[in-house]
Predict the 3D structure of the following.
Amino acid sequence: MKALTPLLATTSLLILAACASVDAPKPEPYARTESPAPTPIAGYDWHFNRHADGSALAYGVAESDDVRLSLHCETGTPGLMLYKDVEDGVEPVIHLESGGETERFPAESQPSMLSDGVLLAATADPSHPVFQRFRRVGWIASWVGDRREAYAAHAGSEAAVERFFSACG
């Protein structure tokens, strides 16, 4: 047994030395993950409109009053106006999310001319991260209470989003 002790000690030292010479794996740096892109809804899309006083971008059914979210800017005026038609009694805030960015924009409420609900109106800075992410990924979601509504561009209509922010941002 005495002859095995130096052999075991030497073997143990060699194993420890071999383990110590191997670099320990380094953890991956934290990477912010983007929310997966939602699926576009049939019949709904982003529509850009330039007019004499500014530009508008609306998500809804073309040439109808069925609009889920609209963004407007006026020529020569900084900022965006956001509009969302909601049911009466909803907290007066437009809560938006895009690709991991989120923001709650305090809103004013007035009776809607399109529904039995109310129209929320808020102002925002087009350079806010939620809009910059929307510009990059082509979709934005709106939260009404605990209900999330995602507004994704169909293939080819991402250009409407870019045209709007080029005109307003």
